[in-house]
Design goal:
The complex is a heterotrimer of chains A (252), B (182) and C (362).
Chain A: H1 23-36, H2 40-43, E1 44-48, E2 63-66, H3 72-82, E3 87-93, H4 94-100, H5 102-111, E4 116-121, E5 124-125, E6 131-132, H6 160-165, E7 170-177, H7 181-199, E8 204-210, H8 214-217, H9 221-235, E9 239-243, H10 244-251
Parallel strand pairs in A: 1-2, 1-3, 3-4, 4-8, 7-8
Antiparallel strand pairs in A: 5-6, 7-9
Chain B: E1 3-10, H1 15-28, E2 32-39, E3 47-55, E4 69-72, H2 75-81, E5 90-94, E6 108-112, H3 114-120, H4 127-139, H5 144-154, H6 160-181
Parallel strand pairs in B: 1-4, 4-5, 5-6
Antiparallel strand pairs in B: 1-3, 2-3
Helix pairs in contact in B: 1-5, 3-4, 4-6, 5-6
Chain C: E1 7-11, H1 12-22, E2 27-30, H2 38-46, E3 54-57, H3 61-73, E4 78-82, H4 84-100, E5 104-110, H5 126-130, E6 141-143, H6 148-165, E7 168-174, H7 175-179, E8 181-185, E9 211-212, H8 221-239, E10 243-246, E11 253-256, H9 259-274, E12 279-284, E13 286-288, H10 292-298, E14 304-309, H11 315-323, E15 328-333, H12 343-361
Helix pairs in contact in C: 1-2, 1-6, 3-4, 9-12, 10-11
The chains are: A alpha/beta (252), B alpha/beta (182), C alpha/beta (362).
Chain lengths: 252, 182, 362
């Protein structure tokens, strides 16, 4: 009988610790698929963040290091400068990337470091129990803005992808919502493209993933998907924010 | 024997180059040496000075509270350093630029018209090495030949002309002072 | 007269950089701070010319130390340098480097603190360097040079020890030592008997993936990790203590000083020796591991110790711990950031101490 579906070899035989319905499960699997479909795996070095995704090294059979909270792209810079032909990618939550690591992210992107960032946005701090994140939307309730985020009190959310897309050192930014098999394929395609751009030395690339956090959102997994579609995508609309290679192609 | 000296002036006069040349020469002669540069807060045109210590033994401190020799290339440096000099020490001043007399009676004051002599060589910018040549003769701390050789390591090979001019400045300062002494 | 044929004049800051480059450290990440800017400037000029070399001016010391972490994770030699306030910012990264057991060299050209302090020389970061500095149960080898030659030598030794014991090594320079210029013999580094870097992240080609982690949630495992680190620290304490002993053979009073203070104190001791005072000095070269035995052993003959520091008294705690009450310890300090004491000042202090304590005791 022909095998049409199997566990990616790069996914270690471990059980994910993530909550049921969490987006990290899917993302890890897709990363494994993309890496083993090419020679990426043997050049890949991943930087795991502080947050729910820190344990990536238990699931992915590639070289992985941890970074202090927020410092992933600084660590990535060090690795890439040390081994320029490596494939370096960070995997960061919105607290890690947009809050404590905003400086490192902005400057790595500004320098045009040839690394890729997978930016998992679930609009709250998942690991610490659902506190407000820089991406928490206005009126969204979290454990540290229990009356709902107000512009007056907590200030406005940050759209890091939009900011980063404006920088000349950034070659590619795309936002996908991880809500359907078709959208998962979109992420996969985007990741492949980002890795390809990195290999070509085009600059910094980032894929933002709007991802579920059913536990802290206090929604069922299915309702969480709906909430992304109905609420999150209004503040963070999916699509390609910048693709300098494609743009360059247009103008030629 | 430990000897300490300060070269002082303002930024742009080549004070550090004087220090590096002297330190290089005495190093190559096999002595212990320390050089401590100090700059004013200004990036250009501020004060600049360096302290050099020469010894045949380990040098404890690169700092000099009462140096034996002080070379001053500018009036502010003269006003600032004339009181630092050790009793019985020697103050060598750039008389092309510095007017005014020292109140110290316990030191030897030697005016050297370094600026004027440099102009005689055709380039005011070599006043520093004219002065260093005179300094070598006046103090007997270092041989002229050692200084000339030291300059080779300070100027890149492609600047042979500049090296030659500065070596000439050293010799000019040294020999003119020598003649005046006779 | 010593041979000077192969010597060059270098500032302490340039000596750090040149020693590193010659030790095969071709990766540098740093952020400007006075009084050590000559190091990044030198690195930015030289490293891009070397194949595989890279210099990055980071956006902060936080970023710089984490770039170091990334580069160290690949197994290549890497360094950063800074001065006191910048080193404070790096403590987070240093804790991670210790936890992940990643080798690197960090030079701290210490300046006056606390806070922004000033840019003058100081020794007030002794606790920070020798007690770990960041969070967690760790130590960093800390080497304290007192000449530009020694800055060069210890920087190269630093890379060796970092690789040997897998961890960050701190070169405890000082503002004064960084600025001053002295003849340096450009020696070739020791690279023998270093363990293979079979932990380095280089891409998992023909081998399973490797991981570097400091988050250890499994029950009992973090304790074991800490014991493992501790065994390493005990081995370092056993093997890597370094100190210089000066005129201790007949001394009645022992000065204990390191870095710039030690060289100035040495000049002072020579002066008071001429007056017949039997004074010697123990100069710790490794601040951690601290050469406590040497001091304890000296106490068999010497009952009076005088600790001199450019601080209000930090190393003195290690001297007291070493002596465990076996001898009297006195202190003379000038909090850094303003004064560079001269041998005459130290000479007066040493003489006074000698007459008050040693002569009186007889």
């Amino acid at each position: 009988m022909k095998k049409v579906f199997e566990r990616p070899r790069l996914l270690k035989p471990a059980t994910f610790h993530f909550c049921p319905g969490c987006g990290h499960n899917i993302l890890h699997r897709v990363i494994a698929e993309v890496l083993e479909e090419s020679d990426f795996r043997e050049r890949a070095i991943m930087i795991a963040p502080v947050g729910c995704a820190v344990l990536a090294y238990f699931y992915l059979d590639i070289d992985v290091t941890e970074a202090p909270h927020g410092r992933c792209t600084a660590v990535a810079t060090g690795i890439k400068r040390a081994i320029p032909n490596s494939l370096v990618f960070t995997y960061q939550g919105d607290g890690d990337l947009a809050s404590i690591g905003a400086g490192e992210t902005l400057h790595a992107a500004g320098r045009g470091e040839k690394v890729t960032t997978i930016y998992v946005n679930n609009a709250n701090y998942g690991m610490t129990g659902g506190q407000m994140a820089p991406t928490t939307m206005l009126n969204q309730v979290t454990t540290t803005c229990s009356a709902g985020r107000s512009a007056e009190r907590e200030g406005y959310p940050l759209d890091m992808s939009k900011i980063l897309a404006s920088l000349p050192g950034v070659c590619y930014v795309e936002r996908v919502a991880l809500t359907s098999p078709a959208n998962v394929q979109k992420f996969k395609k985007a990741l492949r493209k980002a890795f390809q751009y990195q290999t070509e030395g085009l600059g910094f690339s980032l894929i933002e993933v709007l991802s579920t956090c059913p536990t802290n959102w206090k929604l069922t997994p299915v309702d969480s998907l709906k909430w992304i579609e109905e609420v999150m995508t209004k503040s963070y609309p999916p699509g390609v924010l910048v693709d300098r290679k494609a743009n360059r192609g247009d103008s030629e | 024997m430990l000897t300490k000296m300060v070269f002082s002036g303002f930024g742009g006069q080549g004070i550090m180059m004087m220090g590096y040349a002297l330190a290089n020469a005495v190093m190559k002669d096999g002595h212990e040496v320390t050089l401590l540069p100090a700059y004013g807060a200004e990036v250009r045109g501020g004060s600049a000075n360096c302290t050099i210590a020469i010894s045949d033994d380990e040098i404890a401190s690169p700092v000099a509270s009462a140096p034996e020799f002080i070379v001053v290339m500018s009036t502010p440096a003269f006003l600032r350093f004339q009181n630092h000099i050790k009793s019985g020490g020697m103050l060598i001043l750039n008389s092309s630029l510095i007017e005014g007399e020292t109140i110290r009676e316990d030191i030897k004051v030697i005016p050297v018209p370094a600026g004027k002599w440099a102009l005689e060589l055709g380039d005011l910018r070599v006043a520093n090495f004219v002065m260093l040549g005179a300094f070598a003769r006046l103090t007997g701390l270092v041989a002229l030949k050692s200084l000339e050789e030291a300059l080779v390591s300070l100027f890149p090979a492609r600047k042979a002309k500049l090296l030659e001019l500065n070596q000439r400045a050293l010799r000019f300062g040294y020999q003119t002072i020598e003649k005046e002494e006779k | 007269m010593k041979s000077s044929a192969n010597k060059v004049l270098l500032s302490g800051n340039h000596a750090v950089a040149e020693a590193a480059i010659r030790a095969g450290c071709h990766l540098y990440f740093g952020y400007p701070i006075t009084p050590q800017n000559e190091i990044p400037e030198y690195m930015s000029e030289h490293l891009p010319k070397i194949k595989g070399g890279a210099f990055v001016q980071a956006e902060s010391e936080l970023a710089a130390i984490n770039m170091v972490l990334g580069a160290a994770a690949t197994g290549r030699r890497v360094m950063t340098t800074s001065s006191s306030p910048g080193i404070s910012l790096m403590q987070e990264g240093i804790s991670y480097l210790a936890a992940l057991e990643l080798p690197c060299v960090i030079a701290n050209m210490v300046r006056g603190g606390p806070g922004l302090g000033n840019i003058a020389t100081a020794q007030s970061d002794y606790f920070q360097s020798t007690r770990g500095g960041g969070h967690g149960d760790y130590r960093t080898i800390t080497l304290a040079p007192c000449t530009v030659q020694e800055i060069y030598d210890l920087t190269q030794l630093g890379f060796y020890l970092a690789d040997k014991y897998r961890g960050p090594v701190i070169i405890q320079g000082e503002g004064l030592l960084g600025q001053m210029v002295e003849p340096v013999e450009l020696k070739e580094p020791d690279k023998k008997d270093l363990p293979p870097k079979d932990w380095a992240l280089t891409g998992a080609k023909d081998r399973p993936g490797r991981m570097l982690r400091s988050l250890i949630l499994e029950e009992g495992i973090l304790e074991e990790h800490n014991w493992k680190l501790n065994r390493k620290y005990l081995e370092i304490e056993k093997k890597e203590k370094r100190f210089e002993s000066f005129r201790m053979e007949d001394a009645n009073l022992a000065v204990v000083a390191y870095g710039s203070v030690a060289r100035i104190a040495k000049g002072a001791i020579k002066r008071v020796r001429e007056e017949g005072l039997k004074v010697g000095m123990i100069r710790p070269i490794s601040l951690w591991p601290f050469p406590g035995e040497a001091i304890r052993k000296a106490a068999e003959k010497v009952s009076q110790f005088l600790v001199i520091e450019l601080s209000c008294g930090q190393m003195i705690e290690d001297v007291r711990l070493a002596l465990a009450g076996k001898a009297e310890v006195n202190f003379y300090g000038r909090p850094g950031g303003g004064v560079i004491p001269n041998p005459a000042e130290f000479g007066r202090v040493i003489s006074r101490n000698y007459y008050q304590k040693v002569r009186k005791a007889r």
